[in-house]
Amino acid sequence: xxxxxxxxxxxxxxxxxxxxxxxxxxxxxxxxxxxxxxxxxxxxxxxxxxxxxxxxxxxxxxxxxxxxxxxxxxxxxxxxxxxxxxxxxxxxxxxxxxxxxxxxxxxxxxxxxxxxxxxxxxxxxxxxxxxxxxxxxxxxxxxxxxxxxxxxxxxxxxxxxxxxxxxxxxxxxxxxxxxxxxxxxxxxxxxxxxxxxxxxxxxxxxxxxxxxxxxxxxxxxxxxxxxxxxxxxxxxxxxxxxxxx
Length: 245
Fold this sequence. Notes:
- By secondary structure, this protein is mainly α.
- It has eleven helices and no strands.
- The protein has helices at about 1-40, 45-55, 60-70, 75-85, 90-95, 105-115, 120-125, 135-160, 165-185, 190-205, 215-235.
- The protein is globular and about 70 Å long.
């Protein structure tokens, strides 16, 4: 009886995960399609795009990867860039660990952390009571399949559409990034100054005598670390004011 009840509960959590994963996946498909256009320009095949998207699942991270691949960057640059850009997922995983039942095995904890994206974290953290692995797994799997399929479709379309259309679609990703950074920049002037500094310093570094000889990936990594470190030092986040104490 107890085993049947547990199995029914697991099945229901899987259904719930799929239910919330589908709308997330639909949004992912549109964004990943634009990433596929970038991936096609970097020389990736449809299968390569599907595999890389399935295991990366990060818009900024994937964009950085495809940009560095197109620039023939070294492997260490690609790994370092992904680590810096996706560091926030470590914090999300730590927060999600507080929603996991104490008896959950370490393997499930690690796998759930690997499933974390912004949206999967959001629905997992909002789960009533402890978040079961089955819920996070199913939500992540469904949304990831949409994400990988969107990138694959973008690569295929990038090989069939005229160059002018491909160039126009590739701009959509920059619009997505602007949509991400502009709302917080309007709400917090410190974020706005950080964004402005990133534009100015990135332009200066591209023409500076010594720094301009470095690869674009190396400049991006160093600027990201430097600007974020200075911003955190000058204006640390007040956790109590944000209600996160």
